[in-house]
Write a structure and sequence with these properties.
This protein has 67 residues and is mainly alpha-helical.
């Protein structure tokens, strides 16, 4: 189980790091844009992102296994 968790964590870090490595100027502009947004909008976006992530994990663990 720990091995699986570490593999997932490693993949998350790889995916998270790709935009910074490939497009540093764009990421700087995006971070500036994010800082200008109000907290409510960021919470809504974060909540939607969490819900999509949970749905993907659920489908991967239950729904997609039968396709």
């Amino acid at each position: 189980m720990l091995e699986y968790f570490l593999c997932v964590l490693g993949m998350v870090l790889v995916i998270e790091g790709m935009p910074y490595f490939g497009f540093p100027e764009t990421m700087k502009a995006f971070m500036q844009y994010v800082q200008e947004q109000d907290d409510t909008m960021l919470r809504i976006i974060g909540g939607i992102t969490i819900a999509i992530g949970v749905l993907i994990v659920y489908l991967a663990r239950n729904g997609l296994c039968y396709l």
